[in-house]
């Protein structure tokens, strides 16, 4: 045999050896994964014994896709207080929807469930929504003054201006046979409002069209994050970044960040102007972004650029998308219940019919409209579920218990549709919120509760009232019977087929 063929054989033997070794390593890894899968599934099955579950696939779990909310309605009736939901063969959580159960969890200080919330980090970073522990406490204390009464009061006029711009745009759909998908208009309006109020941004978001790509990016991220949470493979960053969803998510995050960076840059530039700076310094209380920028300017501040960006990304998203969902569903509820719509209109006409501008003081004088908004938030909670990971064992009032490490999902959607809490839960009945009607402290939680409740609750309620009041003054709302919206679970509640309304001009 020649020298050449001998060395070729030796090389081939070397390659073969490497292949053998790689094969062995892959086999070992797979074996390790299989054992891990088996043991964690076994642990979960044992742990969740006291919490029944609808039948599910051993690997794909309940795999409910866009039918999650519809299934929830059956589970609430079948499994009192709580049940288990399998997202994957070895990934499961306990869903709770009983007020006493929820009260127990919201009274504790368990962290946000990392397997769920951490997937949002590339998008909104560690802002108030995702932070835990001491840093969350410091940021919450720093940002709470941005929602003080003194700050919120002048926002009512800003909100009214933005709503009127939206209503002017909607005029083109008046008295037509076809309907208009309103969530897109409402989203731009709520984005403009939060940008003007919290970020001192003076542009015309609704008219210049530049922010539509941001809204689209948020729409994509809302769905992509929801599906990522439910796909075990996608929890791995490398696999996700190689997938088409991962690439889309990366592009959407980039777009969202460009939008927020621009807002920060603009405000920083405005504050370079001595006149503006002096005026802001003299204010007793600062707007949201100014609080952050001033905190950064202070010597020794622990607020990094990354922290600041995370807070801006968090509030830009939370501050507009949730309210847009809440407003759109409320308008849909009023369109399908003309008698309640008319009662609200009469109430609003009594206050604003003579041309009086809407103001902070008047917002407290719309009891019926407020009852209708609350009833819509009950039927269509914009944030359908939040999750915690138990950091110590818990025992619920009926004696059932769960160990440390379990993920507990507080399903506000299921709570609000629980027939033991709300008789005839599917019926839109604003009288449930009449002032003399009492209810469990944890029966109605669109804004969650406890220390991690929504910081923007009052802002959101004001914006909803202003929008509903001004819309009812101008239009009669009618449903589109061919496109009745179907609620669909996402991070923020959506409809499978959009939210379509027909508009009639009031005489
Ligand atoms: C109808 C509108 C809104 C609804 C239904 C809503 C609902 C909620 C819920 C359920 C939570 C708890 C989330 C969790 O535990 O994971 C929350 C937290 C939060 N919301 Fe809202 N929200 C609304 C509007 C707003 C607005 C307008 C802002 C800001 C201007 C805002 C900012 C936040 C922030 C920053 C948190 C995290 C608070 C913390 O953990 O300390 N939200 N919201």
Distance between the termini: 103 Å
- Counted beta strands: 11
Largest sheet: 4 strands, mixed
Structural class: alpha+beta
Average pLDDT taken over every residue:
94
Sheet with most strands: strand arrangement: 1-2-7-4
Low-confidence stretches: none
What does this structure look like?
- The chain has a single domain, classed as Orthogonal Bundle (Cytochrome p450), CATH 1.10.630.10.
- The chain has a four-stranded mixed sheet with strand order 1-2-7-4.
- A hairpin with a 5-residue loop joins strand 5 and strand 6.
- The model has no long low-confidence stretch (mean pLDDT about 95).
- The longest helix is centred in the N-terminal third of the chain and has 45 residues, at about 5-45.
- Helices cover about 55% and strands about 10% of the residues.
- The protein has about 500 residues and is α+β, with helices and mostly antiparallel strands.
- The structure holds protoporphyrin IX containing FE.
- Protoporphyrin IX containing FE binds next to helix 15 and helix 20.
- One of its GO terms (cellular component) is endoplasmic reticulum membrane.
- One of its GO terms (molecular function) is heme binding.
- One of its GO terms (biological process) is icosanoid biosynthetic process.
């Amino acid at each position: 045999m020649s020298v050449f063929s001998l060395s070729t054989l030796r090389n081939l033997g070397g390659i073969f050896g490497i292949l053998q070794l790689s094969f062995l390593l892959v086999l070992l890894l797979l074996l390790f994964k299989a054992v891990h899968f088996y043991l964690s599934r076994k642990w979960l099955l044992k742990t969740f014994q006291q919490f029944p579950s609808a039948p599910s696939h051993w690997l794909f779990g309940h795999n409910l896709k866009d039918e999650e909310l519809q299934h929830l309605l059956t589970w609430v009736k079948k499994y009192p207080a709580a049940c288990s939901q399998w997202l994957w063969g070895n990934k499961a959580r306990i869903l709770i929807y009983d007020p006493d159960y929820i009260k127990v969890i919201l009274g504790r200080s368990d962290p946000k469930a990392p397997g769920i919330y951490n997937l949002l980090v590339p998008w909104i970073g560690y802002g108030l929504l995702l932070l835990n522990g001491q840093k969350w406490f410091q940021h919450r204390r720093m940002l709470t003054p941005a929602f003080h009464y003194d700050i919120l009061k002048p926002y009512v006029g800003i909100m009214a201006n933005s709503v009127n711009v939206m209503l002017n745009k909607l005029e083109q759909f008046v008295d037509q046979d076809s309907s208009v998908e309103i969530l897109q208009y409402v989203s731009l309006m709520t984005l403009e409002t939060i940008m003007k109020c919290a970020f001192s941004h003076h542009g015309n978001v609704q008219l210049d069209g530049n922010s539509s790509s941001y809204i689209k990016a948020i729409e994509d991220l809302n769905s992509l994050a929801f599906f990522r949470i439910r796909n075990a493979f996608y929890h791995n960053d490398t696999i996700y970044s190689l997938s088409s969803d991962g690439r889309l998510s990366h592009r959407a995050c980039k777009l969202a960040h460009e939008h927020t960076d621009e807002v920060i840059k603009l405000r920083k530039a405005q504050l370079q102007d001595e006149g503006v700076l002096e005026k802001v310094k003299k204010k007793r209380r600062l707007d949201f972004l100014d609080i952050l920028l001033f905190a950064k300017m202070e010597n020794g501040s622990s607020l990094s650029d990354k922290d600041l960006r995370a807070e801006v990304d968090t509030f830009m998203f939370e501050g507009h998308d949730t309210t847009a969902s809440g407003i759109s569903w409320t308008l849909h509820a009023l369109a399908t219940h003309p008698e309640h719509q008319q009662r609200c209109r009469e109430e609003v006409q009594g206050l604003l019919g003579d041309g009086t501008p809407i103001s902070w003081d008047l917002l407290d004088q719309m009891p019926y409209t407020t009852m209708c908004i609350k009833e819509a938030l009950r039927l269509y909670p914009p944030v359908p579920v939040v999750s915690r990971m138990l950091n110590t064992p818990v025992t619920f009032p009926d004696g059932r218990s769960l160990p440390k490490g379990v993920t507990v999902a507080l399903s506000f959607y299921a709570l609000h549709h629980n027939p033991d809490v709300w008789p005839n839960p599917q019926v839109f009945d604003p009288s449930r919120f009449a002032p003399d009607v009492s209810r469990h402290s944890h029966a109605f939680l669109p804004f969650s509760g406890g220390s991690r409740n929504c910081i923007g609750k009052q802002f959101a309620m004001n914006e909803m009232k202003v929008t509903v009041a001004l819309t009812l003054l101008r239009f009669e709302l009618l449903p589109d019977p061919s496109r009745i919206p179907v609620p669909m679970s996402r991070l923020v509640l959506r409809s499978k087929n959009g939210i379509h309304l027909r508009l009639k001009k009031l005489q």
